[in-house]
Specification:
This protein has 159 residues and is of the alpha+beta class. The protein has one domain: Alpha-Beta Plaits (2-Layer Sandwich), CATH 3.30.70.20. It is 30% helix and 20% strand. It has a two-stranded antiparallel sheet with strand order 1-8. A two-stranded antiparallel sheet has the order 2-3. Strands 4-5 form a two-stranded antiparallel ribbon. Strand 2 (38-42) and strand 3 form a beta hairpin.
């Protein structure tokens, strides 16, 4: 069964430990520009949202790649980039609605999350549990439960 990274917006503090863990795991340095995950902060409302590859069932990045440099790893279910095939056309960057394909500003090479071969470091180092690595079929249950919990809280406030 395919596993996915699930994000809980109520737990993210914007600390960016996930970003640093990713850049260290993938590039050997603490550098947010070299991470395959980024955090967008909306300071006016205090929301922080990690942006990363969603490992889409029908990935636009793979569909648009003219040389087939992006494919699914059957073991992990991750959409992975084969750097030796990539010609750097950046079409994958253009079509990804989740900013899952990125450009390394130093090398100009394309980067994307590959789930760290089934052991995503961003999840491992998320101190507050905002990121979880779960079975794909658990995602719907977790989201429904969160919705029910929010509804219950709302009812308590008006009761």
């Amino acid at each position: 069964m395919q596993k996915l990274i699930l994000f809980d917006p109520d737990k993210c503090t914007g600390c960016r430990r996930c970003v640093l863990a990713c850049s260290l795991a993938k590039e050997g340095v603490f550098n947010s520009e070299k991470a395959r995950i980024g955090v967008i902060s909306i300071w006016e409302v205090g929301i922080h949202v990690p942006m990363f590859c969603q490992q889409c069932t029908k990935p636009l990045c793979a569909d648009v790649c003219p040389v087939g440099a992006i494919s699914r790893n059957e073991k992990t279910g991750a959409m992975v980039l084969e750097p030796n095939l990539c010609i750097g056309c950046k079409m994958c960057v253009t079509v990804c609605p989740f900013a899952g394909c990125l450009i390394n500003p130093h090398t100009r090479a394309i980067m994307k999350c590959d789930l760290c071969d089934g052991d995503p470091q961003c999840v491992k180092y998320c101190e507050f549990g905002a990121l979880e690595f779960v079975e794909a079929d658990e995602v719907a249950y977790i989201k429904r439960k969160a919705g029910v919990d929010k509804l219950a809280t709302a009812f308590k406030q008006i009761a």
